[in-house]
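Justification of computing resources. Each target in the renewal requires a structure prediction run like the one illustrated here; the chain below, 92 residues long, is used simply to show the kind of job we budget for.
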Amino acid sequence: MRPPKPTGKPCPQGESRERCPLVCKYNRFEADELTIDSWELKCLDCGQRETIGYRSDEREEGETTDPRRCPFCGLTDLPVGKNPCDGRCETP
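Resulting structure tokens:
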């Protein structure tokens, strides 16, 4: 399922992102007790992007969000890098 269109300037593809060439990127940083998971979904045509990040030192007590789950397509246990969702964020 496609995520909603990011806010900001209009995408040249219009209100629907079905034709947007989207690229997903996932990074994970670890240092001592701190872990940061970051996700980015970007349209290659207009440059619009949506980023979501999770820091282990900012988690609320009882929070159940899995920072290793893609917030755009919902897949889990993905490798770090470009397009870890294997195109699932790019297809309707």
